[in-house]
Amino acid sequence: MDHLNEISESLQRGDHLRVAELTRKAIDGGTAATEILDRGLLAGMDVVGRRFGAHEIFLPEVLLAARAMKAGMDLVKPLLVSGNAPSRGKVVLGTVKGDVHDIGKNLVGIMLEGAGYEVIDLGTGVDAPTFVDTALAEGARLIGLSALLTTTMSAMREVVDLARSGEHDLKIIVGGAPLTQDFADAIGADGYSYDAAGAVALVKRLLEAA
Amino acid sequence: MTAPFLDRVAAGETLCGDGAWGTQLMARGLEPGNCFEAVNLESSAVLAEIAARYVEAGAELITTNTFGASPLNLAGHGLDERTEEINRAAVEAVKAAVAGRAHISGSVGPTGRILAPYGDADPDKVRRGFARQIGALAEAGADVVCIETMMDLAEARLAVTAAREISSGIPVIATMTFNPTPRGFFTTMGNTVEQACSVLADAGADLVGSNCGNGMEAMVSLAASFAEHASVPLVIQANAGLPEDRGGVLHYPESPEFMAGRIPALLDLGVAVIGGCCGTGPDHIRAFRTAIDRRRASAS
Question: Which of A154, B96, B120, B180 is most deeply packed, by most CB within 10 A?
């Protein structure tokens, strides 16, 4: 298990070159892709998520860790797809209309992919119909909304209202620096998470309960 | 005409800043997502109107509508080639309303990009962009450069450095946005108040402090932390609380009376400029000015 620990630790340090090298080695050595993912990459990202949640590390460290995660994922992902690891479901992500900030959303996307979800990332400045139409067309059961600006938070309610206006069973979760659980409750969202690790747990809970 | 801004600060005066511009423009129909600075080219009358209302309410600094007017921000709207024009127009638009009764404070916000190595923004390019914006603001007659809402100390330092490249004498304010955590205040990028105080002053900021991100109560705690660490005078501009959703309309909960009730605490800490950020309007500023004047009267 040592080489998987080393992947996890290199990821926590944000050393993407080392993570890629060790992941390649593990694959060549015959370690199963799911093992590398769960006990190496995701285990490392889990520690990063916890330390971020405890305010011991901040965005720069998380960005470097996410880059390292992606370096490992790029190698592992083709093996997962060609193997028989089924997708846990589709999730639509985007930053709401009026807002161009995507760092948090991208982190959530990387983490969800790592956890086995198929992520459809609509990018930034996405309006309500695009969120809902894409989710319906793709058969996604959950939409994740991101906003950094306090002035764009109201665009989140539009998505919730539109999703609720039909007979669709779409779950909607929200996140972003100015958001709170109270705000999520007020607009009728299904969930809120403070950080990316929490978002993954939230998606799991919502989709598995549904 | 009032005395130069830095002379007033050096004399120990506390100046009343203005309130928000973004939420004021939105109240006049501007949609989030549009380029707020494009207003400078299209309808300077609305800027003059907001400025006049703030001056009338007692603001002694009037912020220009240039928060997102660095070429890096404007490029997102295809307007980077009009950087000089947009910044100049913002200063011109408020000149008549100010008419010597307030100092014009040229707003410079973050680029919204993450600097290398964490992101892809090249620090040299960011610094040159700030220099272009600040050069245009200064040339048009801004009395002060106000670098604000910074979340990355490295980017804030580039902006202060750019301002100093433009002019060694122009007053420079540099304020950052902090998040309260159980471990203390940190910016999104993990910078502390102590780090901000030393790095920004070393880079050439005349005043440092915090704006946005917090309501008045947290801002008083932040101001206390700044007072402990800063070697230069302080600027504090709080939000009217964090926005709440009220039936689809964003509502900033802190009233003028509530916020003004904490002004004496900021005055006790020796804060040199007290203004408002998101959600504050002319009524907040009127209440702030009253609280500041009350202290002036009792001191004289």
Answer: A154
Q: Do B188 and A59 touch (CB under 8 A)?
A: yes
Residues 6 or more apart whose CB falls under 8 angstroms from that of A110 comprise: A66, A69, A70, A73, A196
CA distances from A162 to A131, A169, B20 (A): 9, 12, 31
- Chain A residue closest in CA terms to B24: A151
Asked if A183 reaches chain B (Cβ–Cβ under 8 Å), the answer is yes
- Can you give the length of chain B in residues? 300
Res A86 pLDDT > 90 = no
Listed in sequence order, the DSSP H helices in chain B are 5-10, 22-27, 39-42, 44-57, 71-74, 83-98, 123-140, 153-166, 193-203, 216-229, 256-260, 263-268, 282-299
Chain B CB within 8 Å of residue A187 CB:
yes
Calpha distance A66→A89 (Å, rounded): 22
Nearest to A64 among B112, B118, B189 (CB): B118
Helix (H) or strand (E) holding A69: helix A59-82
Closest by CA position to B74, among listed B49, B109, B120, B117: B109
Question: What is the distance between the alpha carbons of residues A48 and A117, in angstroms, rounded to a whole number?
Answer: 20
* B159-185 pLDDT tens trace: 999 999 999 999 999 999 999 999 999
For position B232, what pLDDT does the model report? 98
Question: What is the DSSP code (8-state) at residue A36?
Answer: I
The interface pTM score, or ipTM, of the predicted complex is: 0.87
Q: How many CB atoms lie within 10 A of CB A185?
A: 12
Are B243 and A61 inside 8 Å of each other by CB? Answer: no
pLDDT digits (tens, 9 = 90+) for A161-171: 999 998 888 99
Q: Are strands A171-175 and A142-146 parallel, antiparallel or unpaired?
A: parallel
Here the tokens at position B172 are 């420079």
**3-state secondary structure at position B248:** coil
Mean pLDDT calculated for residue range A177-183? 88
Distance CA A189, CA B96 (A): 47
CA distance A141 to A148: 24
The residue with greater pLDDT, A202 or A86, is A202
Write phi, then psi, for B148 (nearest 5 degrees).
-140, 165
Q: Does B23 touch chain A (CB under 8 A)?
A: yes
Using CB atoms within 10 Å of the CB of residue B203, give its burial: 0 to 12 exposed, 13 to 18 middle, 19+ buried.
buried
Write out the DSSP string of B69-106. Answer: -SHHHHGGGT-GGGHHHHHHHHHHHHHHHHTTSSEEEE
For the residues B236-259, what does the mean pLDDT come to? 90
Residues of B in contact with A64 (CB under 8 A): 117-118
Q: d(Cα B159, Cα A23) in Å, to the nearest integer?
A: 40
Q: Is the predicted pLDDT of residue A83 greater than 60, yes or no? A: no
Distances (CA, A) of A179 to A184, A191, B109, B254: 7, 11, 21, 17
